[in-house]
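Regression test attached.
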Amino acid sequence: MHILIVAGEKLGYFLARTFVSKGHKVTIINRNRQQCSRLARRLKATIVYGDGSDVQIMQEAGAGSADAVLAATVNDQDNLIICQLASFRFNVPRTLALVNDPDNEEIFRQLDITTALSTTRLIAGLIEQKTSFDEIINLFPIGAGKLNVTEVALTETSPVVGRTLRDIALPENSLIASIMRGGEPIVPRGPTTLLAGDRLILVTLPENYGPVLRELTGEK
Amino acid sequence: MPASRSYFVVIIGCGRMGSYLANRLSREGHSLVVVDIDSATFEALSAEFSGFQVEGDATEFAVLKQAKVDKADLVIAATEEDNVNLMVAQIAKKIFNVPRVMARVFDPKRAEVYRDFGIQGICPTVMAGEALLDLFTHLPTNAGGDQR
């Protein structure tokens, strides 16, 4: 696969190193001459010096034959234009943009970018997951928020503790996909009994999210 | 544009061009919001300017909402950066459904790609170039005469 990366020195270097080691052909566009010469010395990749959102530079970097473009500069606007030019002008099939503003994840998707990832949101989400003692953690939305995956911890006071799954009437369009018990995953069946301390991985539609959580935690 | 009807116009970028347009449109009776990342640029707005100023980065969605881009009849993206202008213009057009959107784009090639995708780019480079060429072709010829 030919991957075209537009990024600053550090991110560009480590991304390229990862892809090259997996056998991909990598081209980096970088707008700093010194950084370009350092990248060229350290990587088995093609380095192109210039503005990654310039049609001419993209052409020189072989955008026409790229399978994927990864726009990872520090500016959301540049990443948008890079991906759009790659897709509109060079028909690159897959484009991925990094964004700072979490709102731009959804906006970029509406503006024809295959994938937009907010580094801010990813990092904030990870920190929340790792430091939170909350009973409910929103893991991730799927399909632009049409499906939620949520982790719920059961406490002693939860009304479902001690009951089997088949006895619990969860609202429609919701599923307990997995149970983490003592650090081990269980794929639950009807006879599985829920215990305090279980962490349930829940799949719900947004409209059932509230009712399902109330059912499991007993909170109003 | 005579102010027979008053429009709500959002201008992104209060540099020389943005402030010129803002002052002029405000004087003609239109409602204006001007957005710039640097509040010092608002000093270029004249005493007659009666619109609102929003200090913020127009690539942040919340700033565009604050500037009420969703209510605008016209959005003009006139910052110094082509990519900011193209991004804001697309958000205005495709997310907020603003009826008229214009973006200043210095790079003629970039402007051309986006013209095919419905973003009207004003390219000062091409306009100035064409104007100069036009002057050139209309130069009065010397007595000796063979200038072409």
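Expected vs. actual: identical. Chain A has a mean pLDDT of 90.
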